[in-house]
Amino acid sequence: LRSCVVCSTKTGKRDLIRLVRTQSGKVEIDTTSKIPGRGAYLCHLQACWDTALKKSRLDHKLKGPISPEDRLALREFAQHIAEAPAQNPVP
Fold first, then answer.
1. What are phi and psi of 85, to 5 degrees?
2. Which pLDDT score is estimated for 84?
3. Do 33 and 21 meet the contact criterion of CB atoms below 8 Å apart?
4. In the chain, what is the straight-line distance between the N-terminal and C-terminal CA atoms, in Å?
């Protein structure tokens, strides 16, 4: 089980979205769960993404600041999630 860094909902890692800080320092969305690096998980709720990006929770969990470019890419991804409901919503 993994937990969302914002709401602490515990579920299988396939039901969460993994973010990873790569060796180059870039923060990416890891859809395969195989990218090496420091990872953190967020659920599919828009509120969790908003909170994670507004506050420094992701910076802390990923052990370093997130660049403005990466933060913008994550915000755009989060808006896309809000439009499409999760395939396996948590009960």
1. -65, 155
2. 57
3. no
4. 15
Residue burial 22-49, b: 16+ Cβ < 10 Å; e: rest: eeeeebbebeeeebebebbbbbbbeebb
* 9 and 89 Cβ atoms separated by less than 8 Å: no
Query: Which token pair is 60?
Result: 């802390």
Give the span between the Cα atoms of 77 and 25, in whole angstroms.
Answer: 19
Helix (H, G, I), strand (E, B) or coil at 56: coil
State the alpha helices, DSSP H only, in 1-91: 46-54, 57-61, 68-83
Q: Is the dihedral of CA 91, 88, 12, 60 positive or negative?
A: negative
CA 27: distance to chain centroid?
Answer: 10
- Residue 11 tokens, joined: 């579920």
Dump pLDDT digits (tens) for 50-84. 999 988 889 999 999 999 999 999 999 999 886 65
